From TrEMBL:
Residues 117-139 are annotated as: Disordered. One of its GO terms (molecular function) is cysteine-type deubiquitinase activity. This is Ubiquitin carboxyl-terminal hydrolase MINDY. It comes from the Eukaryota. One of its GO terms (cellular component) is nucleus. It holds the Pfam family MINDY-3_4_CD. Hydrolase that can remove 'Lys-48'-linked conjugated ubiquitin from proteins. Residues 305-340 form the EF-hand domain. Residues 128-138 have a biased composition (Low complexity). Keywords: Apoptosis, Hydrolase, Nucleus, Protease, Thiol protease, Ubl conjugation pathway. Belongs to the MINDY deubiquitinase family. FAM188 subfamily. It catalyses: Thiol-dependent hydrolysis of ester, thioester, amide, peptide and isopeptide bonds formed by the C-terminal Gly of ubiquitin (a 76-residue protein attached to proteins as an intracellular targeting signal). It is found in: Nucleus.
Length: 447
């Protein structure tokens, strides 16, 4: 892999001004995909940083476990089932990232005989459960001796040309994904499968690395690459023009979604392709971390109701998210929604929705005028779950799902108002009047 080292390193880690990537940042990224001892379908994150890879993998893993696997208890898994489902998930993400089948899929692993794993880990047979703690401990100790330069000197890449061969190869490399540096091996595999030049063409600022060399956090481009197969830097729908520059966004509905606390702080606006995914699983972003919110109830991602469509279309004419549009745009909104848009009727609506002639049309009155009493099709309440891979962010430092009940209302009801928490504020960017009741004493943490 030596001929690609420089390009890959520049793309992922940037070009540090002095001394290369810090040892502490690199160490945080040297973990593998490890399942929680307390939650068989939850991946554990040891330190801050690799959530940019682990959370998307967790989201796709849950999608496959909840909706593709026939099992009465989705939270119980044998180690063999974990192996099959994890490798299937990694293959799916690699397939999504593949720019062209003619170039095939690239898998990055250890050069022969250079793996830091213990002998028992490199065998194809899963290790007995009783030996797992000592294996993981020995791997962690080995990882401490594996610095940035040495790691990149002992890598090897292999190419497979078909999806079926990819699945077989990924499965055969299970212990590499699970062991020391498994997260980085997978990340590099995705990058080389996608193609460095393809990623550079999609990233808005090619000088911004996929991993922040100062804080160790993954960029939005990295998250988008894993979630959608495209390393675009933005979360809105489609492309936008800004001062003659084309800014790339998301171009089709994602399988799993993304919501961010940054939207509640008005730093960005997530588009419907990420807000309304195919499956009811959302990666939640805080200022520094990624977690996952999910449910088994498909009604949460059902087809848009007319009022939901109207809200989305109205807001597309309100890019600043002010909650209103200039009255001059009312006709365009009505046309976009296939409402009667004859000038005389539009003027009549203007006078009704803007009786004080302020020159603006508010979202609320507009929806009430054309879509009163619309039912979203979402049940009054439904069970939901939250995942946070960091031990220290979980109760008793045990990585487990936090269970709760969500009330998705179509309007604000002060009688059922619950606590104002970061998780709730994040979810309110999609469901403005959602209320959450958790089974634990404290709300789950976004950080």
């Amino acid at each position: 892999m030596s001929e690609l080292n420089k390009e890959v390193l520049d793309l992922v880690w940037g070009r540090p001004t002095s001394g290369g990537v810090s040892a502490s940042i690199f160490r945080r990224w040297t973990q593998g995909f490890v399942f929680s001892e307390n939650e068989h379908t939850a991946l554990e994150q040891f330190e801050g940083g690799p959530c940019a890879v682990i959370a998307p993998v967790q989201a796709f893993f849950l999608k496959n476990v909840l909706f593709n696997r026939e099992s009465p208890n989705w939270r119980q898994m044998t180690e063999e089932e974990q192996k099959i489902e994890l490798c299937s998930t990694l293959s799916e993400i690699l397939e999504s990232a593949c720019a062209s089948l003619t170039t095939g899929f690239c898998l990055v692993t250890w050069a022969k005989g250079r793996s830091p794993h213990t002998q028992s880990q490199t065998q194809d047979m899963p290790a007995p459960e009783s030996s797992q703690p000592s294996e993981e401990q020995s791997t962690a100790l080995t990882a401490e001796d594996l610095d940035f330069e040495r790691f990149h000197s002992v890598l090897h890449k292999r190419t497979v040309m078909s999806a079926s061969d990819l699945k077989e190869e990924v499965l055969s490399l299970y212990h590499a994904w699970r062991g020391c540096c498994g997260v980085l091996l997978f990340l590099y595999s995705v990058i080389l499968t996608k193609g460095i030049e393809n990623i550079r063409n999609e990233i808005q600022d090619t000088m911004e690395p996929l991993i922040d060399p100062v804080h160790g956090h993954g960029s939005q481009s990295l998250v988008n690459l894993l979630v959608t197969g495209h390393a675009v830097s933005n979360v809105w729908d489609g492309d936008r023009e800004c001062s003659g520059m084309k800014l790339h966004g998301i171009h089709k509905q994602a399988s799993v979604g993304f919501l961010t606390l940054m939207e509640s702080l008005r730093y960005c606006k997530v588009g419907s392709f990420l807000k309304s995914p195919k499956f009811p699983i959302w990666i939640l972003g805080s200022e520094t971390h990624l977690s996952v919110f999910f449910t088994k109830d498909m009604s949460l991602v059902g087809p848009e109701s007319p009022s939901e469509q109207a809200r989305r279309v109205f807001q597309s004419f309100d890019p600043e998210d002010n909650g209103f549009i200039p009255e001059s745009l009312l006709e365009d909104v009505m046309k976009a929604l296939d409402l009667v848009s004859e000038p005389e009727y539009v003027n009549l609506v203007k006078s009704k929705l803007d009786p004080e002639s302020l020159g603006i049309i508010l979202l609320g009155p507009f929806l009430l005028e054309f879509f009163p009493d619309q039912d979203s099709g979402i049940p009054d309440s439904l069970p939901v779950y939250h995942y946070n891979g960091l031990k220290q962010s979980n109760h008793n430092e045990r990585v487990e799902y936090v269970e709760g009940t969500a009330l998705v209302l179509g309007f604000e009801d002060p009688m059922v108002r619950t606590d104002d928490t970061p998780v709730k504020r994040c979810l309110q960017t999609k469901w403005p009047y959602i209320e959450l009741l958790w089974t634990t004493d404290r709300s789950p943490s976004l950080n």
